[in-house]
Amino acid sequence: MSEELRDEVEAINSIYGDDTLVPAGEPLAYILTLPGKRSSLRLCFSEAYPSEPPAVLGTHHSSGGRKGAGARDLVLFRDVLGSVFVPGAVCLFDALEDFARRLEEEEGHDETEAQPQVPTAAQPPRHEQDDGQNTAEEPSSQTDMPASDTSPPQWTLSEILVDTKSTFIAHVAPVTSPAQARQYVQQLLASDRRFRTATHNMTAWRIRGADGLVTYQDCDDDGETAAGSRLLHLMQLMDLWDVMVVVSRWYGGVKLGPRRFAVINAVARDAFVRAGMVHDKDKDKEKPKKKGR
């Protein structure tokens, strides 16, 4: 088994729960349970993984409750795996995330089509209400809220990093106010059980007012002493504004010591780069210098 596959197995089980990806009893064969305890699939990895994609052999167990759900899950996962795989990069986390998103979209579409249409005649026009009272409809709580409060965060995720059995991943998103940053953290934890069960969710943000005269910056260690301030310092060095970062860690039972701060900053920086937030001067620093003759 390659080191990349070993780390990926640990990361998947740390994030999605134990026994999500388990050996199937044959060399490099695994059983993968899809998100939401849906179908489980049989996968086989080659010795060359991640240079070659894993083979999805078939359904190990079909999710109950819906006829044909197992076959649908199999087809959908094969499709997303083919779309996210890049030679040389591990792909299961991206495939699982894309699978969950695509499945949610399909099920939401099915529910919308299944809802009965309420006849418009059941709602009398306003001019037919002649009781002298104001009959204008009260705005719903959704339309009454600012768009910034209801729109979902535009998260960019880092690559998963496993170090001595601890798993790290970072989320970054643009923000315009401290209240929005705090709300985004709450939405992330409320919408995804995996991150609620993380050992630590360390956060930092820097926000510059519209006039540029008022600035905000804050951080939270979430039990990982000094980690939030290290993230904030990284953002200061990178001169990042109007952005927030959340680094999640699932503790693997082995203490990393001071090295954990380098790992935390590494996944945060990776997410900033993937989101296109790194300045050109930072990118130039990453390019190796040519040696003179």
Automatic annotation (TrEMBL):
Repressor in keyword set: yes
PROSITE patterns according to UniProt: RWD, UPF0029
Principal location class: cytoplasm
GO biological process: GCN2-mediated signaling; regulation of translational initiation
Biased composition (Low complexity): 114-124
Pfam annotation, one family: RWD
UniProt xrefs under PANTHER family: IMPACT-RELATED, PROTEIN IMPACT
Keyword Cytoplasm (UniProt): yes
Lineage per the UniProt record: Eukaryota, Fungi, Dikarya, Ascomycota, Pezizomycotina
Any one annotated GO CC term: cytoplasm
Biased composition (Polar residues): 132-154
Compartments in which it is found: Cytoplasm
Organism annotation: Stachybotrys chlorohalonatus (strain IBT 40285)
Assigned keywords, A-Z: Cytoplasm, Repressor, Stress response, Translation regulation
Family label: Belongs to the IMPACT family.
Stretches for region Disordered: 104-154
Protein name according to UniProt: RWD domain-containing protein
InterPro entries registered for this protein in UniProt: Impact, Impact_N, Impact_N_sf, Ribosomal_Su5_D2-typ_SF, RWD_dom, UBQ-conjugating_enzyme/RWD, UPF0029_Impact_CS
RWD domain ranges (all copies): 7-106
